[in-house]
Amino acid sequence: MSTTIAKDQPGEGRLEHAQSDHPPIARAKVGVVLVNLGTPDNTDYGSMRRYLSEFLSDQRVVDYARWKWQPILQLIVLTRRPFLSGQAYKSIWNTEKDESPLLTITRAQTEKFAAQMQSLYGDEVVVDFCMRYGNPSTESVLTRLMENGCERILFFPLYPQYGSPTTATANDQAFRALMKMKWQPAIRTVPAYFEHPGYLRALATSVTDVYEPLSERPSKLVASYHGVPERFLHEGDPYHCQCQKTTRLLREKLGWEKGSIDTAFQSKFGPEKWLGPATVDHVAELARQGHKHIAVISPAFTADCVETLEEIEDEIRESFIAAGGETFTYIPCLNDRDDHIEALVDIANNELGGWVLPVSSTA
Ligand SMILES: C=CC1=C(C)c2cc3[nH]c(cc4nc(cc5[nH]c(cc1n2)c(C)c5CCC(=O)O)C(CCC(=O)O)=C4C)c(C)c3C=C
Ligand SMILES: [Fe+2]
Ligand SMILES: [Fe+2]
């Protein structure tokens, strides 16, 4: 079969078949995919069980030997947990759209991000989002982008701190999808961005925005990160260090004194020792120490979800009040704040270097 080089196309050097009966080949574009964790399709037992089964069967999340873990998961954990978690999701469900807040917020982030990318790159860049678990699946989105001519894809896990149960498994899933393709796109993955000045600026501004109208300034800010087993740290996962550093950088950005922000970890799962202190205990301890007014921020979550809207706003708040605390202020995640989206766009631009040029610079 003879081939020619399509020189008049932006992806110059791309091979194009000269045969007239060959199916048309779409103009080469760059895809950018925002990736989040995933969420159940509904709050009923079946939907919750499906979601939790996929999530908790992931060896990046629970890394026990399959033959030991699967019977415990399928016969014990997945009998009760779908009910309990289903209740938690029900209490925060977006009833208007009939979906979880994580999905609503990820879509809103993607729309704003896409609008900014469009104004920078025109139609050369196509933006979409996918989930690691549930829908829209990673495979379906990567396949669709490839079918739409995206021969290069920037895969952007929305986790500021690298974690093997989050960033690594998201990337694994992308490469699993690529394994099935005859024609794979070139792929780049976006690294952790907890040190990015735009991310830190957005976090700091989200704190001052909430503090400004408060009549009583909180005497302590608690940065509550999703926990992982402590063992992961000893096995080389940098998540713990990146969380500690995020707290320090946030404090420096705010210009606050040492000791004004504490780091804690939430959402413990299973009997193993997890990173500590546990947020739920730490806020009670703060109340016992005499802190009457505290605030909580969750820098590892880019979108509010069941872990923030239910666990922090409900369980962790109650723990503080029950121990004698008076006001508990939750600082929402960065969600689709403009300064957050600007930071994400800047991060993506840095990673797109050499792949695509802004429209203004090619004119
Ligand atoms: C062993 C279990 C888990 C590990 C390790 C873990 C790490 C981890 N998770 C996030 C972010 C999110 N987790 C969310 C929900 C969630 N997480 C676990 C378990 C582990 N997570 C479960 C079982 C659940 C479901 C809810 C429940 O049953 O309690 C979510 C919210 C999703 C939503 O739909 O709202 C997020 C986001 C991080 C950042 C992390 C470690 C790096
Ligand atoms: Fe989690
Ligand atoms: Fe939780």
TrEMBL record:
> Does the UniProt entry include the keyword RNA-binding?
no
| Record pathway | Porphyrin-containing compound metabolism; protoheme biosynthesis; protoheme from protoporphyrin-IX: step 1/1
Say which domain of life the source belongs to: Bacteria
> Which intervals carry biased composition (Basic and acidic residues)?
9-20
Instruction: Name the chemical reaction catalysed here.
Output: heme b + 2 H(+) = protoporphyrin IX + Fe(2+); Fe-coproporphyrin III + 2 H(+) = coproporphyrin III + Fe(2+)
| SUPFAM superfamilies per the UniProt record, alphabetical | Chelatase (SSF53800)
The UniProt annotation puts the region (Disordered) at: 1-21
Q: Binding of Fe(2+): at which residues?
A: H226, E307
Localisation: Cytoplasm
Q: Which InterPro entries match?
A: Ferrochelatase (IPR001015), Ferrochelatase_AS (IPR019772), Ferrochelatase_C (IPR033644), Ferrochelatase_N (IPR033659)
Ordered alphabetically, the record's keywords are: Cytoplasm, Heme biosynthesis, Iron, Lyase, Metal-binding, Porphyrin biosynthesis
Task: Name the principal localization, coarsely classed.
Answer: cytoplasm
Q: Which PROSITE patterns match?
A: FERROCHELATASE
Query: What EC number(s) does the entry state?
Result: 4.98.1.1
CDD domains attached here? Ferrochelatase_C, Ferrochelatase_N
The UniProt similarity line reads: Belongs to the ferrochelatase family.
Function according to Swiss-Prot or TrEMBL? Catalyzes the ferrous insertion into protoporphyrin IX.
User: What's the name of the protein?
Assistant: Ferrochelatase
Per the UniProt record, the source organism is Halomonas piscis
List the taxonomic lineage: Bacteria, Pseudomonadati, Pseudomonadota, Gammaproteobacteria, Oceanospirillales
Report which gene this protein is encoded by: hemH
